[in-house]
Amino acid sequence: MELHQLLVRDLRFLLLAPPARLSPNLHGCSWGVVGIVMKQLEKEQTKMKKLLAAGAVAALVLLGGAAAPAMAVPDVCDGGDSGKIDVSGDPESVTVYAPDGKVITAYCVKAGQLTEVVYVSPVTVLTITPTNGKDISHYSVWYDDGGYQS
């Protein structure tokens, strides 16, 4: 049996045993040892949680989930509060400003074959630069309440 399985078995006995069966010397096991067993169980649980968290991160990276947008990516960026905004001159980046009383929370950008939707921390000014380095053909922006009121 693994250590954590032994610990769980022993703790179940301690938790389920009638009070009359529990004594300072439980089958040769002092209460100090019970404390040590509890601490070891907590360490094992912490290790397991860290292992599960690392596995989840690894799965996201392997599956591309870390860079995946949270919503379906459209072929054309015509959604958003701004609607589709076409740009001229094929710029590699565009700076956008939130309207008074609003903040930018996300944007969609079309550059070459890439269409990407990106969520950002709320800001009033944002420079949109596609990750593929291509020129921007159009974009759209989502806003939320907040920001400077004039």
Compute the separation of the termini in Å: 69 Å
Q: Give a quick account of the main beta sheet: strands, pairing sense, barrel closure.
A: 4 strands, antiparallel
How much strand? Answer: 25-35%
Shape: elongated
DSSP, total strands: 8
Helix content: 25-40%
Which radius of gyration do the C-alpha atoms yield?
28 Å
Walkthrough of the structure:
By secondary structure, the chain is an alpha+beta fold. The chain has two helices and eight strands; from the N terminus they run αββαββββββ. It has a four-stranded antiparallel beta sheet with strand order 3-8-5-6, with no helix packed on it. β1 and β2 form a beta hairpin. α1 (3-16) packs across α2.
Strand and helix layout:
Blueprint: H1 3-16, E1 25-26, E2 29-30, H2 31-63, E3 85-86, E4 94-97, E5 102-111, E6 114-123, E7 125-128, E8 136-145
Antiparallel strand pairs: 1-2, 3-8, 4-7, 5-6, 5-8
Helix pairs in contact: 1-2
Summarize the structure.
By secondary structure, this protein is of the alpha+beta class. It has 2 helices and 8 strands. It has helices at 3-16, 31-63; strands at 25-26, 29-30, 85-86, 94-97, 102-111, 114-123, 125-128, 136-145.
Characteristics:
elongated; 4-stranded antiparallel sheet; alpha+beta
